[in-house]
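[scheduler] slot 2 assigned
[scheduler] job type: sequence-to-structure, two independent chains
[scheduler] chain ordering preserved from manifest
[runner] begin chain α
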Amino acid sequence: MNKLIRHIILPFLFAAIAMVVSQEAHAQDQAIMVIANDKGAPTTMTMKELKSVMQGEKQRWADGTKVSIAFMKANTSVGSSTAKKIMGMTGDQLNKFWLALVFQGKAKAPVFYGSSSDVENYIAQNPGAIGVVEAGYTLKSGHAVTIDGKKNF
């Protein structure tokens, strides 16, 4: 039995762990870009301003349009990268953060999607909407928001 564990089960277990760690590292490396509806969100922002919006602190744009947020689900590479790069959190922490804000009545819940096209469709239909998609995504409507001088980060 010890040979079975040592020669078959342990290598399999290590390989499985390595795959999970590799997938998590890859998910965190996904380049992202911010997109927005043409009404409300500016075309350029600082990371500090973006973080304020994405944390529900800023709830109206300069023109008075109400902010609405679209995220990719935390189990996607874009969702994981968004949580890490913009919020400094894991995907699970981002979900808990927003759950607490909504429960406390401090902000309206963002919407979560499984694809960039779903995020874009939401943004196209909602003035004031802002969201994050994979870098290089080709927009059919709305605009990309430059963050600290970069379209992708």
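[runner] end chain α
[runner] begin chain β
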Amino acid sequence: MRRFLLISALFALFPFLTQAQEFPVWWQPVLENTQWPIPRMFDTVQAACKIITEKSLKPVSANDFAFAAVKSLSTIDRKITARLDGKRVLILIDGKILKSFSAPENDDCPNWSRLALAAAVEVRPYSLKTREADEEELFNIMINAALGTIDSYSHYTGADPAELKPLEKPAGLGISYRRIGRYLEITEIVPDGAASKTDLAVGDRISAINGQIITTLSRVQILNLLRGEAGTNVSLTLRKDGKEQTRTIVRIQASASPVTYFFDEESGLMTIKISAFTEKTVSSLTATLKIARLKKAAGLIIDLRGNTGGLLKEAVLAADMFLPEDLLIIKTDGRHQSTHHQYTSTAKKHRPVYPIAILIDGQTASSAEFFTGVLQEYRHAVVIGTPSYGKSVIQANETLPFGGELYLTWAQYYLPSGYTPQGYGIYPNLCTSGKTMADMDKLPVRTNMATWRKGTEEEKRKEMRLCPRQSRKNNSLDEEAARLILLNRERYERALTYFSLDLT
């Protein structure tokens, strides 16, 4: 009987013994590494892997995530390489195999995360540059390398380091970025920031800051070079449009209000400039529209040129201001269940009913494209300018263990017609690409958007050749075209999108 109880007790413990041995045999030596805080690093990498594989709009396996992270070690030290050889992951130094790992199952985030960290630990004794890297440096390189396989918007940002130099009037360039190989790739141009006033764009890659090569700089050094006192300069060396170029940018602090206006007493037209969709946009726009009502404005010119977007929720609420109730405003969708939403317009006491012209250009993006597209589709505005940027994907912000932030593309939005601007953007009713004031009377008017919404890739490319994207901030032709069309009601009605929701 005692023997039976002993055997039974052993079998009862068996699941726990098995669970304790779930990780690979090579993991215990990695845990014993004292140069890096491996347990907390594992928590961060595994959390990133889980979020990305479950929520990314583009399907990503744990295999894809971790192998991209392992390969990124070569950006720390070029003598490190990694290969997939059937069911094995090979880590090489100077072309010679240092370690061979058995590849976990494709969806095994815990063990692929362990493998990525194990690879870093294995190469450390053979690479001075790897030995000098701290945990946040590794996260910036490895996690961003994995996110780089998704799109140019997803990125990881480490926790704010305590080593940032103190500043009396701190200012920056107004960009978000991720470390990709030998570059910092720009992932976002912050509205009203210093970069938004230049031709810098998402996807541009910075190779040096003030002459200092990116590969020689730590994460904190990069931050301290980009930051500085308001009004001071920073020089960037970058790859842009396939060429090496330099830009000198003055650091500034973003303005307080994203909405400004000008009222023309003679014409009765109010020009409203929305530089970004932030948490202040709706309240600022509400106050501005109240002034328009008090002044009995004859029409609105809403200038979204150079507006790179911001908070989609604010753009939805802003568009809702102009629409009658119970209209579909937006649908969002993605692989994760939390992305399935649709929003309809609400009842309101004072709905602004004006002839509206919206000005856009090639830098009008994301939430600004949504706002434009909704009012265009419901025939509430004539759109003037060039095709917009073409970004309708949505990023979620996830906080990782120990403070890092993961910005992941996880959803896409659709206009009421079902059209998504991703890639091709919003097409203007009046195209001003390449035009001057001398062309005012012969601007091409486009009211039927069926080809743009439902056409083939070749048909859309043809349309883009006829009206190419351009950056046209403060272009007087756009403003004059808007003024003339708003003051001629018949011409305004003819320029509105023709039954844009009926695309059959």
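[runner] end chain β
[qc] chain β: The first helix runs from residue 2 to 20.
[scheduler] slot 2 released
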